[in-house]
Design a protein that fits this description.
By secondary structure, the protein is mainly beta. 4% of the residues lie in helices and 40% in strands.
Length: 353
């Protein structure tokens, strides 16, 4: 039994043990979003209307710009195949838009343009190719009550409709969301959705009916000013989730920047893993990385000062750390990871198998 446990721990620790590989992106744009579908197929996106696609695990990337979007900052990409992807440009007013392609980028349809100059759109997530949801910073509704902006589609983006503010708990003064990595909202199953905020508070909002009703939970993630809070949220099933963030204006500061839940987001517990510098994105590693059939708590994080991997959220220190400035992260079903950063930086972390 001890030998079996030792072998499992060694296998988990071996994930991402190989040196990361820098890949040629063919762009110098600041990259902020990535979606890895398999060991071969991945999409990425960034500033100046830039999107990228690989069909060979990143050995070669094709970079291009969405026509007419050269002034936009794409911070989220949600891909469903080598041909099919959504892009979200973050920002205030009409700088926030959603584009869709079904022909590998040969053509793009503009599906949605935000029309509130006082708001800011941050990120999006999709349950399936037809059903998705977008998160934006709080704006005042018709009664003057500030609520987070939530916009959803049920028909593949043909129509995007605002979720009524009456169904949401009110946002507190100084509360906001972060569009750092396209991962401030997460979905699971057919109707579960969570998003995290920051500023004066660091709370997680949770809905089990695709946004019709919501609950909200306090978290121990650092908060207090507009630069602090939850930047990223991920769920591996309906109960087990992780949040990460920090202070992006002081990324070297360590603090309570990583927490997890095992009750669907009702309560959150700080992870003891150290150091906890600023984290812009977090993702669960391969779910069966410890042993077949057993869900793992292995996570990987990226940030502007370092990136790291731990095979268990309850351990005291990271198994691996890398001094890399990265913004966003995606992990394939088999355990490979791709992360992106400034000046066209793309890094691949190959899992040992």
């Amino acid at each position: 039994m001890r030998l079996h446990c030792l072998a499992a721990c060694l296998l988990a620790a071996s994930l991402f043990a190989q040196n990361p590989t820098m890949q040629k992106s063919n762009t110098t744009a600041n990259l902020r979003g990535v979606s890895m579908l398999s060991d071969n197929v991945a999409w990425a996106c960034g500033a100046h209307g830039t999107y990228l696609r690989t069909m060979d695990g990143g050995s070669s990337w094709q970079a291009a710009q969405v026509p007419g979007a050269e002034a936009l900052d794409f911070r989220d990409v949600e891909a469903f195949s080598a041909d099919f992807a959504y892009l979200l440009s973050a920002g205030p007013g009409d700088r926030a838009r959603i584009y869709k392609t079904t022909d590998a980028g040969k053509s793009w349809s503009l599906q949605f343009t935000y029309n509130n100059p006082k708001g800011f759109i941050d990120c999006m997530a999709f349950w399936d190719p037809d059903h998705g949801i977008v998160l934006g910073d709080p704006v005042a509704d018709h009664t003057g009550k500030p609520t987070f902006e939530l916009i959803a589609t049920e028909d593949g983006g043909k129509n995007w409709n605002r979720i009524p503010s009456d169904s949401l708990p009110p946002a507190m003064e100084g509360e906001n969301a972060f569009g750092a990595s396209g991962s401030c909202i997460a979905v699971q199953g057919k109707t579960n959705v969570w998003f995290g905020g920051g500023g004066k508070l660091a709370r997680v909002f949770r809905s089990t009916d695709a946004g019709k009703t919501w609950m909200v939970a306090e978290t121990p993630i650092v908060h207090g000013n507009e630069f602090q809070g939850i930047n990223s949220i991920a769920f591996r099933d309906a109960k087990h989730g992780v949040i990460a963030g920090g202070d992006y204006m002081n990324p070297e500061h360590t603090g309570p920047n990583l927490a997890s839940t095992d009750d669907g987001g009702l309560t959150w517990k700080l992870s003891p893993v150290s150091p906890q510098t600023y984290m812009s994105a977090v993702a669960f590693a391969k779910p069966d990385s410890v042993k077949p059939g057993a869900a793992s708590t292995a996570v990987m994080v990226v940030g502007t000062t370092r990136s790291a991997y731990a095979d268990d959220l309850a351990i005291a220190s990271w198994q691996k750390t890398w001094d890399l400035n990265l913004n966003a992260l995606s992990i394939s079903p088999s355990g490979d990871a791709i992360a992106v950063g400034p000046k066209g930086l793309i890094v691949k972390f190959a899992a040992l198998r």
